[in-house]
Fold each of these.
Amino acid sequence: MAVLSPASFVTKGPSSSSSSSSPFPARASFLRAQSISGSEQTNLRSSSASKSMSEFKLKVAKNSTGMTKERESDDTATLTSKNLFDDLKERFLSFKKHTYLENIEHYESLAKGQAPKFMVIACGDSRVCPSNILGFQPGEAFVVRNVANLVPHFESGPSETKAALEFAVNVLKVQNILVVGHSRCGGIRALMSMHDDVETSSFIGSWVSVGMNARKRTKADASNLNFDQQCRHCEKESVSCTLTNLLTYPWIEEKAKGGELSIHGGYYDFVDCTFERWTLDYKEDGEVSVKDRSFWC
């Protein structure tokens, strides 16, 4: 920009033109230029600010939409959970009205103690509820459910299934232990998918490896069958292995030998709704065989 000298601000006295033009033309031009430049900068700043504000509003709108969707999702989940528990509440109140209150003497007796005749070991599969499929009523069966209805060998260390066995046999003094296997068992499928010589670090793998003998027997006896058929074979074989494992518990073997405790196997096929049952025949010399096999359909 040109530098203005002091001379440009000097007037020439009365002889100057009386025209309406500014007496300081150079300064007026400069000021107009400055004014225009300032106006352009102001407009530029205003435009930039407007653009930034628009981008900010768009971002806020997007975030708001995301938060709204998230809140809607949370509200839906809460509503679904509430509906589920509303349904459970209705079921409970129906049970209280039509079962509990109509059999109040029985439930008052159960409040004083239990003396079940059965201990049932079944799978945790939601499709296999022993009380539902076998009609057990409150007080009739002490039930333990785990993945694949397995019982570890006595010497394998503590577990909740072992604790339940000890309580049922030695405290409740049940007269029957019934192990119930079932069709399309996910635990047995996991077992059959394992390798004999591979250790697993997963909880499921560690647990179902309790049935490794059943897997080996299945591979030996049913190697000509496809995988699904082998799994079905193993579902029954694992029940037999579990019955054998039960006899490794000294207090179970003693009661079985003395005729105080009977050990049974069962297999529920929920595809065609059939039930197979058998009983272990424990001889005094330690020999074990199967008796009273029956098929319910």
Amino acid sequence: MAEHAEETLIEQVTEKIRDGVDSSSSSDSDDEKSKASVVTEAVKSKINRLFGREKPVHQILGGGKPADVFLWKNKKASAAVLGGATAIWIFFELMEYHLLTLFCHCLILSLAIIFLWSNATFLINNRSPPHIPVVSIPENLVVDIALSLRYEINRGFAVLREIATGRDLKKFLIVIAGLWVLSTVGRCCNFLTLFYIVFVTLHTLPFLYDKYEDKVDAFAEKASVEFKKHYAVFQAKYLSKIPRGPLKDKKFL
């Protein structure tokens, strides 16, 4: 009996030692995982994001359902929106449909189908005509859209006024260059094609950037460093040799 008690005691001690070793190894592995995650987050924080971005791409795009559509979080909705825009562009650009013509044709087709359906059900089956729902635009929706549009237009006028006053030369030159590029692009394609190109770009570039943002940001940082090096060399060789008039220090009492 004493030998049996000693054996059971030894087994209990060995089981406790094994449990302690397993718990220590699991805690060590958890500590290693937490340290690795901290290191990866630190490395990601050191990467300079594109255009000085501090927020996630989803939040920059406004968040909610529109951002989900642009980033293909909801693939069915994104495909439907992009397919609808492509169909509109094909109708108006390739098939050379006009907006008024398309609207009238769609309205004629809808009225003809509803008219034939209503009369066929009454004449053949002696049933009452189908119920056509009453379509009405809610007043609150129109007021909200008008207020939002008014706010954006007034903010645009305020920005243009601030640029025109000459307070920020850099912003003025950027706006002038952007408008000139836009006018040049407008000569090559019409407004609908330009809008479609921008729409497709919004559905592709943010998705690709969100998927490969670490690689893109690292490449952009390297490109920025190389550009600064080349600019420094160009400034040392050419810009610094441009003669300038003598500057006289003026002291004001």
